[in-house]
Amino acid sequence: MHKGGKWARQIIALQEEDGKWGCFHTLSRSYGAALTTEQALRRLERLGYTMEDECIQKAVGYMEDCLAGKSSIPDRREKLHDWDIFTSLILAAWIRRFTCDSPKANQVARQWADIINSAFAKGAYDQDEYAAAFHSILGMKPRGGKRIDFVNFYPISLMQGCLDERMECAVVDHVISRDNGIYYIYESGLSILPPVFESKNASRYLAAIELLSFYKYAVGKLDFVVDWLYKNQNADGKWDMGKAVNDKIYFPLSDDWRKKEVREADCTERIGELVSRLTDGQRETEGDAICRCI
Questions:
Q1: Average pLDDT in the 18-31 region?
Q2: Rounded to an integer, what distance in angstroms lies between the CA atom of residue 30 and that of residue 267?
Q3: pTM for the whole thing?
Q4: Alpha carbons within 13 A on the beta-carbon side of 80
Q5: Who is most buried in 106, 110, 223, 238, counting CB within 10 A?
Q6: Distance CA 157, CA 215 (A)
Q7: Distance (Å, rounded) from C-alpha 272 to C-alpha 178?
């Protein structure tokens, strides 16, 4: 219902002919640039765009070309991580957010799933096993940079549908119990609820929970979040996170928030979808299928 709005029109108007929006990674955004490819995709996804839309098809085609080595993202090469490993990770993660039909993206997802299977083979996370699998499976070059912590947006998004029940449960438990959340999204412990519901911090917390909610076996482990959301529901059954959550990422969805009822409708739409996922035992409902490794 938001695909024809002004926010989407503004973003699509800035898309380049090859499908990108300038630099790819959000942290690579140069001074004065309107937005990155990643920012554009995150916002369009929030506004309801899917692989059926031309702008997403163009973007996915561009990312697949970059993943295949036919093109490259224009970002400055970071020295912190092995750049090739990092770019394949972020490209594959974003491709799989829109389609399960990319062989190269699925191959990257399977590699990361294999790393996690090794790291949790004994039932709990083993840092040494993770390090060994990371180097052997991804072929990290000597002095290639720092290992990537798997508890960040990209691996967690990428591996949805790639782990069996035991591994999913172990990963979700590990992520929830950490003190520093999910990197790039929310960097505080997920087991501790935000103290202020009407805040950007709470909106970012919801983004982390939304990411985990697409893991089938996260259902039940996040009941405490559902309880918290219902406690913050208005008497009329709606939610309102206040004006402060207008960050041009997760909100707003509608064109104009000058009317409280419009803001309330946007908040209720987002939170209602999350509650539905966390309370519905049938995870793969129409339009909400988990992208599996095939």
A1: 78
A2: 31
A3: 0.93
A4: 7
A5: 106
A6: 9
A7: 26
Report CA-CA distances (Å) from 123 to 129, 133, 155, 161, 174.
12, 16, 19, 19, 11
Mean residue pLDDT across the chain: 92
Residue 263 pLDDT class (50, 70, 90 cuts): very high
CA dist., res. 17 & res. 247, Å (int)? 27
Find all residues with CB under 8 Å of 131, minimum gap 6, and list them. 147
pLDDT at 102 over 90: yes
Report the distance separating Cα 125 and Cα 275, nearest Å. Answer: 29
Look-up of token digits 């990209």: 154
Residues 6+ apart with CB under 8 A from 166: none
CA-based torsion, 203, 32, 5, 19: positive or negative: negative
Query: Residue 13 carries which side chain, given as an amino acid letter?
Result: A
Position 282 confidence tier, pLDDT thresholds 50, 70, 90: very low
CB atoms within 10 A of CB 122: 10
Tokens coding 284: 């793969």
